Amino acid sequence: MTDWSAAEWESLCDGCGKCCMIRLEDEETAEVHTTNVACRLFDRTACNCTDYPNRSAKVPDCVTLTSDNVRQLCWMPDTCAYRLIAEGQDLPNWHHLVSGEKESIHDAGFSVRDRSVCETEIGDEDLENFLVTWPGEKRRG
């Protein structure tokens, strides 16, 4: 993975949108819980960032995935191609690099397409009311 071009690395993204959902960390246990609350830059139907090139400037806690950090990001979705490849696993049949179809992840139900709310629509104090376990993910906590 470390010798991949930027285009090859970016091609791994399956467009699930799970990494763009806000996560909560339990301060006592350090467990990370996923919500269905999307980053304000996330297009909930297209399942992508509306300002990908500038996302880190606009959302300071947005993490840029690299081959160096993906192994340390325990919150990455279990179905994430970056995580799977880093762990030496195969890509699922619905991944576009396997199926040949960009829509296959959505058709298979493994994306967050149209199943989230925007962070600007709710208050931080309400985040715990939006905890979810997405298809293909292990329940944590």
In short:
This protein has one domain. It has helices at 6-11, 55-58, 81-86, 96-99, 104-107; strands spanning 21-25, 32-38, 42-43, 48-49, 117-118.
Task: Output the keywords.
single chain; 141 residues; alpha+beta; 3-stranded mixed beta sheet; two-stranded antiparallel sheet; 5 helices; 17% helix; 13% strand
Polypeptide structure, described:
This protein has 5 helices and 5 strands, in the order H-E-E-E-E-H-H-H-H-E. With 141 residues, it is of the alpha+beta class. The chain has one domain. The chain has a 3-stranded mixed β-sheet, with no helix packed on it.
Report strand %.
Answer: 5-15%
User: What's the SSE pattern?
Assistant: HEEEEHHHHE
Number of strands: 5
Count the domains: 1
Topology:
Layout (H helix, E strand, L loop, with lengths): L5 H6 L9 E5 L6 E7 L3 E2 L4 E2 L5 H4 L22 H6 L9 H4 L4 H4 L9 E2 L23
Parallel strand pairs: 2-5
Antiparallel strand pairs: 1-2, 3-4
